[in-house]
Protein 1
Amino acid sequence: MHMSDALLSPAVGGTFWAGSMGLIGYCAKKLKERMDERMIPLMGVLGAFIFAAQMINFTIPATGSSGHLGGGMILAALLGPYAAFIVIASVLTIQSLFFADGGILALGCNIWNLGVYPCFIAYPLIYKVIVRPGSGPKRLTAAAILSAVAGLQLGAFSVVLQTVLSGRSELPFGTFVYMMLPVHLAIGLVEGFVTAGVINFVKTARPEILESVSASKDLSPRYSLRNVLAVFLVLAVLTGGALSWFASSNPDGLEWSIEKVFGKPELPEAEHGISLLLSKVQNRTAFLPDYDFKNKNEAPADAESGGEWWPNIGEGTSVSGILGSAMVLGMIILLGMGIKVFRTRKA
Amino acid sequence: MLNFDKEFFNIGHLDALSYKKTFIHQINPGIKLVVTLFFIVTVVSFSKYDVRQLIPFFLFPVFVMSAGDIPAAVVLKKLLVVSPFVLFAGLFNPLFDTSTAYTVSGINVSRGWVSYISLIIKFILTISSAVLLIATTSFPGICYALEKMRVPRIFVMQLLFIYRYLFVLAEEAMRIVRARNMRTFGKQGSGIKPFINIVSIFLLRSIERSERIYHAICARGFDGRIRLLKNFSIGIPDVLFAVLSVSAFLMLRIYDVTELIGEAALKH
Amino acid sequence: MSHHIIEFNDVHFTYPDRTEALKGINFRITHGESVGIVGANGAGKSTLISHMNGYLLPERGNIIIGDLPLNRSTIHHARKSVGVVFQNPDDQLFMSTVFEDVAFGPLNLGMTKESVIEKVNDALTTVGCLHLKDKPPHHLSLGQKRAVSIAAVIAMQPDILVMDEPAASLDPKSRRQLINLLREFKHTKIIASHDLDLIMDVCERCLVISGGRVTADGPVKEIFMDAKLLADNNLELPLSLQRR
């Protein structure tokens, strides 16, 4: 699931950009410290491999719909987390340009959602813990499926958070979570199954490739037990908070959300709870309100400190506004056509 | 044609466009990257109910498209294919946000519809500017610009490597997929088991390729570092382009140009 | 003394999977020679080439490049004096523009920027590809890719030029252009191929490899007339000789 520019506020987009770029720098430093020269072409080719492999479709069993590979866990298992993160980030960068997947501002979010969770949470905390040297294919399969599911769940949850924090979509948090997580549970299972198949295949055909990753300890982060516990604590709080929030506002679950979403367009009673909570949280959290962007150093938007949450739309201004919009649009189109004509004349 | 082939040729088309030689293509890649980013941030900085303030921003993509000689169809196609997610996520705005924003000749327009339209316009603006960036700038150019901006070398190399081998590997994948599809009947054979085999074999071949590449670059004195020679100079047209576009974006962000023009027109 | 010498003395090599690829290779190539290495698939040609610039080191026996025995400490010297053009140009051209790719080797040799630019332009002119210098490799035809990968190697000014199947899957016209180009080179040339017509056109001397050993070594014309020798090594008379 790719995040998109249009759904982001500059604050959220900028924060995740900074976070992802910082991590790229950190990983680059880690890799530089002790790098096997062979890794450079290997990483490059595997990036192109993931890109190309994602273009291959397959039929998902029992549903008839088609899916494709994500590949984050395969990369982590083959390259270790630092190199895998760099590869994932580079693949997403190229996709954001060539496929316009998401867009350039959303790139930070996408690198975060699809890179951080598989590389720095699922791989070290799940995959590495389950898979030991000499583990059999069953153990490996379990590890791959669990870590792929965890990575994708966290990623999907992150998409929801980013969308809700940006406040460009009215999609209620609870409904959104309820839609995203089950879908991504299914995707995660399939992804995990494919990951397991591929890793088992490589293990049989070229065992030394996987061994070289697990042997080079320098390429894997070492977590102390305390850090691990801290991460789990944060995750537990996040999930717990989300779940209780969701539970209190949506007592009747999916049926409720579908009926409300597609049936009655009016604001449902329970909705007030969510909006109220949301705006409370928004007021409390520093980077949430849309235009609190002045402190960010890259803020080009700080000229618009007059921007407001509720626009002031009067009857009179709306007419001139619509007229003006139409005229401006017309002028732009004329200009574009003019340049085109000029170009063809010249050529 | 198969899905895969279509996607493959689409990237190829964008890439081929980026080697044209118009005025836009010749602007320094780094400048174009920064200006595009600035454009996107400016656009998304508008509030969710701003619609008319966004209209003047079409100037930028339309200008780049026509001056860069990029067929409108290329951009439009991307917009249609890309991310139904935005359309979906935005669909909830009209459903949940029903208070009236405008009343135009007796019909109530809800805030939700206004914010949905705003969202779609933002989507069109941001995606088209990203597509136009890559259609008017050679990808290696963007990478050299990133390297100048102190993006870690290993990441830049990674981008260059992927760009180089993307086409080679995608062609290889295309051959494998064609071979599968020629022997696939209905759902038989397109399932997950053959897919795992295809991906695994493709992965092994890719790893072997990386070993051959390593062999070949060692033969030319590779020592773990890749040195780049390309030097992109910044000329007067580049500076002019940057200053003009950034000040235009800022002006359009601060002043409600559409409103002003509309009022002026009404007075007459 | 001459730097343009490459000498193999009883070279053995076995891959980690226990495939014995070289079982005692002996030969000596001197200044200005052009030598073809022919042999069937799996005869050991590629393994042999991997030894010439020290990508693989012999398990037994020794190799002399120029005046120095090849070992870990002289690998740099070997890679500077022996330029290898690999079979698949897509493996060799890894940078995203032709110019950057040809500049890769000279930059690694530590040349100054100006002389790198000069070397790159010279090399691209030699192979007739100067007009392609800003193109990405995936926009080139196979013949152009091959020419550029040769330029990438000659830009490093090696004493000895080694090529692995330089004409593989080229169309007739590109193949002819390549042959004309190779004939012009004054380098010591070593060309591994089973395209015997190409070897006939470009080389004077020929080594026949079979089962990891040199089974014949002599003037091309003599070896290629010997139908029995060729057949014993799973090779055929060159087409140009068959017609007569």
Protein 2
Amino acid sequence: MKSFAPTLWLLLFTLALVACDPSKGAKFQEKQTGTQVDPNEEYVMVTTAVNMPMYVNHDQATFKRWGEQMGVKTSILGTSEWDVQQQIQIIEQVIGTHPTGLLINGTDPSIARAIDKAVEAGIPTVVYDSDIPQSNRHAFLGTDWYEIGKLQGEALARLLNGKGKIAYMGIVGMTNMENGFRGLLDVLANYPDIEVVGKYNDEANVEKAAKITADLINAHPDLAALAGFDSNSGPGIALSIREAGKTGKIVVTTVDWEPEHLKLVKEGGINLLVGQKRELFVWYGAQFLFDMVHQTNRISGNDKSAGITNVPFAVNTGLFTITSENIANFLP
Amino acid sequence: MNTPGIAKLLQERVFTLSLTLVILVGVCSLIWPDTFLTFSNLSTLLLNISTDSVVVIGMMILLISGTFDLSVGSVYALSGGLAAYLAYNYGMFTPVAILVGLGVAVLIGFINGLLITKVGINPLIQTLATLGIVRGIFDLMGKVATLPEGFDALGTSRLMGIQTPFWVMISLVIIFSILVSRHVFFRRYYYIGGNEKAARLSGIPVNRLKVWGFMLSAFLAGVAGILFVSRMGAVPDTLGKGLELKIITAAILGGASLLGGQGKITGAFLGVIFIHLISNILVFARVSGQWTDIIFGIILVLAISLDIFLKKNAEIRLTESLRNIYQQPKP
Amino acid sequence: MAAARLLLSAISKVFPGVKALDAVSFDLLPAEIHALCGENGAGKSTLMNILSGNLQPDEGEIFLHGEKVVLANPLSAQNQGISIVHQEKSLVGNLSIAENIFTENYPVKTGGFIDFPELYSRTQKLLQTLNITSLDPRTKVESLSSTRQQIVEIAKALAKNPKILILDEPTAAMTADETETLFRILRELRQKGTSVIYISHRLTEIFEIADRLTVLRDGKYQGTFPVADMTIKSIIRLMVGRDLEEQTYTSQQQKNILLSIKNLCGHKFHNITFELRAGEILALAGLVGAGRSEVARAIMGIDPAEKGEIWVQGKKVIIRNPPDAIRYGIGYVPENRKEQGIFPEMTLADNIAVTSLSSLARKGFIQNNQVFSPVQKLVEKLQIKTPSIQQKMINLSGGNQQKALLGRWLMLDPSVLIVDEPTQGVDVGAKAEIYQLLRALAAKGTAILLISSELPEVLALSDRVLVLYNGTLTGELSREEATESEILHYASGLARHSP
């Protein structure tokens, strides 16, 4: 006992802090929706890489805002590193704590089984960002990654006037990225004068992306364009192009609209950004859970026993593009 | 019990760890009376520890012999990924695909062992290089989203309501804890870790045993990887990333020393349970992200410092008793 | 007593459960070499630790130049002019000699930069006063022999200009020649007025170098005597509290040849040929670095020989590794017990059972009682002092550890046993017991190859002495022919010119 006593006390202390929730026992609240809301309703977001700015600023901020607005508890679980296996374990373990609803980031197809377990346990489960079609999730809200590739492809073809050398990068092997790559290549296949010189894995790492770009510029002095597919592709690409003194000479299209991306568009380092409406899929994802729990839209006398999920099956929240023309609207 | 008896027990990591686990579970079942101590939560917990516990067995044996293997996470991924890939893309008969996956794991372990013992590469550098190489090969391989039926069954079929990986894990833990504590072959790893030079001079085939150790560690990592993939029915692309440090941490908590010569399989197993129990508690307490990392760091440092403190106390008492013996008047 | 430079009066030190020092007094005159004798555990280290400021006495007073002082910590002891050269090496291998010597007081230029030219010239000067000109201050310490390192240790202690220098077992790893160099340095220091406290297990050295000696036994003061009034026998009587039995030598040598080495060549030795008979104790003498241990390692298969033949009991064998050697009935107790011999954190039982695990196990599984009963018997037979065979090896004294290492091989009952420096760092009592043990083994018919740097040991034990110089056999001496000077003669490579 002695050996671990302080450890134990530390843990107990932490647990006590977390367990003592002042809101416990509060009266039922009446919200503007007219539905009775139990403030102990708890909606849990299970994601990974919880410190990633994009997740923090868009997903998690929206989720918290939604919880406050609805007067319910929200919790966010996930490791600080990108760790799918750990996400699976967290999903499996959180089921036992009977949350009101689960909002799960569709990081990888292998989380399907864990999602099914939650559904089996009767917990409303919504997947956001990328779909896990193999699973029995109740609903999905997110973006069509094929479309992200397609938008980039079309922009590139237009900006290059249909000819030149192109390379692209992202997290190779990740399902949604691969879909995006496919969208890009499908468009470019229509332009015989566009030559694709390669597909590169930047592992969502700025330095990797910069290094790949620098090497590409050296190997192909006539490189005409680069396309990026993860949050760190753009900043990395733009950095190396600037260092090679080729800003404006190489066309860059990429994804996401974090402050650094926006700044680069303004400075001309990036020609086009494809943005996802993360706020929308998180907000409405949470709302779907809420609506399932509260039977906001009832289809039958008892949807549960009728086996009906009374929210949309899949929602595409759509995309938008940012260029030098509309950048002003996004800057503070 | 008299004081020296308790003091001795407190030096025994298996005892302190078990005690801590029992207390933790007790306290948590008071905090979350309806949800914590339930069959569903415990079986989830046991299922989650099953793969790590299989990997930790091999790591513990290596740590006992004074070395370690950083490539277990990558081997775990490649073995599981490759077996799934062959079964899915080439329709290979499941048992054959699994054997190929395990064979590749053993081969990697063999290469590790050979380069470390024959060429004399430092194990840290060798297994770090292997970690990168094997991860790269895994990344090159296409990923599998759905597995054939037979493959699935390995990880998802149930016995007495608990999934197979648990039963595989529990049998391996029992078998190896008996072998490692009792069998001559494994007993020799303690000598190697205790003093490698002396072990060699005493006629222990140090190099051969080390190669076997690396092969065993890789083999068990492969088994765990295949179990996990078949349980999930898919191969995540970050499969097994960072596993090595988690496993080494569990083994150290379970009584291993980086200097070698110490540790028991049961200790390593309890170390894994401990880490997963803390994770489980953190999920229940809705703590996430960097807090988890901070709490784990603190636990590790506290546990090890306390252990050193207890050992020192014991050492002082021991020196006294020895002095008395040596100070006895000579005839 | 006013003339004493250092005076310890009635010092006592109690560790929990044991009185390590019991009212011990000690005085040190200016310009004298004072030997401190006692078995391991007699309290020498505790006394030296008190003198160097590592430990504080519970009772008693310390006077320096007649004034009462408190040595609160090592630094204050140094500042009062007391320097100690510990048995454990305190040098940093990959730094130069100069940097090691001036670790605590580098000469610096403005801005805190090390003044290297000054550092080297100071070191050079210091080495010159020690009459050592062959060492370059820039040499890395790790490239020096252990003797040279010991000299650097002493230089490091002298760099602080001490009035009192304490040396703890400085010659443990030295050959006769090197010891002579050290003694020359010590005599010169004495001439310059430095007082030296000299601790050594080698009693002969004390007669050579010391002026007076003080004996401790079990933490109690046994007296201080001029060396001239003492004999080895009388010192030993004071140290152990009884006479050690004078052992009469009888050769146990039998006819049959157990080990035969023919033209063995290796990295550091060439054309070694000899035969070893049952019951014979054959000594391999020579200076450190002459290749004695290398021959042993080749026979054992640790660093297999490049050329030559090994015959065991009339059959030619090939030994590639230690398990091969063990299979042919050869055992090896290595030099440097700590590094190559013991498993410090494992139990005494484990340490003894290591060579015979397979035979102690049943179907590969080890039951504790199967191990314990033979080990227990052996521990009793060897008179290893331990509370239990479950005791950790590191907690046993050097002599008991050494006996356990011998015991490890006795479990196997080898036909040939190679013992390399079997009594290094072992106190007088245990030494005698180990000698007895080796003789008893020989009487049972075991052939023993003894490697030792202690010539009295070689002379006391062996039936025959082979002398190695620079990797070649230069002489073979029968017991009757062997004397210290004769062995040294061959060991320094002078064989061919001798009459």
